[in-house]
């Protein structure tokens, strides 16, 4: 994440508001955190803080659970998607490096 995250990535929403927005109970939200499906930040006082992106992720998780998908499967799908994003980013950086080397472009 960048030093200046977009409004969608800023972790500023409390668990109570997330519960209202998603229709999930606070216990369900904490359970999804335990299952490593969602990663809230903690305030200095220890309160969980979520982003709008987290809210969207929780809605997706809830929809998949309603379809009967287990949390383990959801986590595996998330890990696979992250690996694909990482591989794509790595290929892009490698290609950029090859182009820079081929044409003598120096990074300052």
TrEMBL record:
One of its GO terms (molecular function) is DNA-binding transcription factor activity. The keyword Cell wall biogenesis/degradation does not apply. SUPFAM superfamilies: Putative DNA-binding domain (SSF46955). It comes from the Bacteria. Residues 12-81 form the HTH merR-type domain. Coiled coil: none annotated. PROSITE patterns: HTH_MERR_2. This is MerR family transcriptional regulator. It comes from Aquibacillus halophilus.
């Amino acid at each position: 994440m960048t030093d200046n995250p977009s409004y969608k990535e800023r972790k500023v929403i409390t668990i109570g508001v997330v519960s209202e927005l998603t229709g999930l109970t606070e216990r369900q939200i904490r359970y999804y955190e335990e299952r490593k499906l969602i990663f809230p930040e903690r305030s200095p006082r220890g309160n969980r803080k979520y982003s709008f992106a987290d809210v969207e992720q929780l809605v997706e998780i809830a929809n998949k659970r309603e379809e009967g998908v287990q949390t383990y499967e959801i986590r595996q799908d998330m890990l696979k998607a992250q690996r694909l994003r990482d591989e794509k980013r790595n290929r892009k950086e490698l290609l950029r490096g090859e182009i820079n080397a081929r044409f003598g472009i120096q990074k300052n």
